[in-house]
Specification:
8 helices; Glutathione S-transferase Yfyf (Class Pi), Chain A, domain 2; 190 residues; 4 strands; Glutaredoxin; globular; 9% strand; binds glutathione; 2 domains; alpha+beta
Length: 190
């Protein structure tokens, strides 16, 4: 068996770490997790230097090193095609990459307005208008996917890249404002 190590920071505070970890789990990869310590700055710096981008997640699988959530997904999808990380159909795959790309490069207002801490609930939190537009866009994406592919996941019966990309923000919306709970209910977060 090929040894695999995923370097991440906290799954509670770092949405990219959580996404990388979810993708490795969805792929069925047997991996160990190496955590960047928030306190030990020297070992943190050493671990970050292992990642050419100085960012996590970063995956080592045997001799292969891959970083960035989308690249890790593409690599694991090739390595474990049976896991269904990407939808089989060409049109569905294009759709999946399109919405994953929106999350990869966008939703800046939502990210800055709702800090990532999956253990903290803020029922009375006021979401500012810029972030509301991002939330509405996510609701539209979810409604469209669930209509087209009939759930329970965004692309049907199997969790995919899209679920991993949207899970951290869906949960953050739910934790920050109970009135947005409908968003989390639409997501496949189980
Ligand atoms: N586009 C990158 C984003 C990665 C990213 O921004 N990672 C953050 C973690 S949330 C990071 O490593 N920051 C440096 C640090 O934690 O010291 C991806 O898809 O993996």
């Amino acid at each position: 068996m090929t040894a695999a190590t995923l370097t991440i920071s906290s799954r509670n505070y770092s949405s990219w770490s959580l996404r990388g970890w979810l993708i490795c789990r969805m792929a069925g990869l047997d991996f160990s997790t190496e955590l960047l310590s928030g306190e030990d700055t020297t070992s943190r710096a050493e671990l970050l230097h292992l990642s050419p981008s100085f960012l996590v997640p970063r995956l080592r699988h045997g001799d292969i090193v891959v970083w960035d959530t989308l690249a890790i997904t593409a690599y694991l999808n090739e390595t474990f095609p049976e896991a269904g990380l990407l939808p089989e159909g060409r049109a569905e795959r294009a759709h999946c990459f399109s919405i994953a790309g929106e999350m990869h490069g966008g939703f800046v207002n939502l990210r800055s307005a709702l800090p990532m801490n999956l253990k903290a609930f803020h029922p009375g939190f006021r979401v500012f208008n810029g972030a509301k537009a991002d939330i509405e866009r996510i609701v539209t994406i979810f409604d469209d996917c669930l209509d087209r592919y009939e759930g329970p996941y965004l692309f049907g019966k199997t969790p995919s890249l899209a679920d991993a990309m949207f899970a951290p923000v869906s949960w953050r919306v739910r934790l920050h404002n109970a009135s947005c709970a409908s968003l989390a209910q639409r997501a496949s977060l189980n």
